[in-house]
Design brief:
The protein has helices at about 5-10, 15-35, 40-65, 65-75. Helix content is about 80%, strand content about 0%. It is an all-alpha fold and about 80 residues long. It contains 4 helices and no strands. Helix 2 (about 15-35) runs antiparallel to helix 3 and helix 3 (about 40-65) packs antiparallel against helix 4 (about 65-75). It has a single domain, classed as Orthogonal Bundle (Helix Hairpins), CATH 1.10.287.
Length: about 80
């Protein structure tokens, strides 16, 4: 197991871990949609995942600003 998997196994319900998993799924669906442009059901699923991640990031920013900054830098999700 990698360090990333070990951290997720330690506390899979933590906000940081949920955001990490959502980010992986979002990237996977993005790659799929670049190939299958007309797959609208996957596009809808992507939008739902992005909105869920946005809500979790908003919560994390409100409760743990330092953790939020570290996470967005690690995942490279903000420009």
């Amino acid at each position: 197991m990698t360090d990333k998997e070990n951290k997720i196994m330690d506390n899979p319900g933590s906000t940081e871990n949920q955001i990490s998993l959502l980010t992986e799924r979002i990237e996977t669906i993005n790659k799929h949609l670049k190939i299958n442009r007309k797959d609208h059901s996957s596009r809808r699923g992507l939008l739902l995942l992005v909105s869920k991640r946005r809500k979790l990031l908003k919560y994390l920013k409100r409760t743990n600003l330092e953790g939020y900054k570290a996470l967005i830098q690690k995942l490279n999700i903000r420009k």
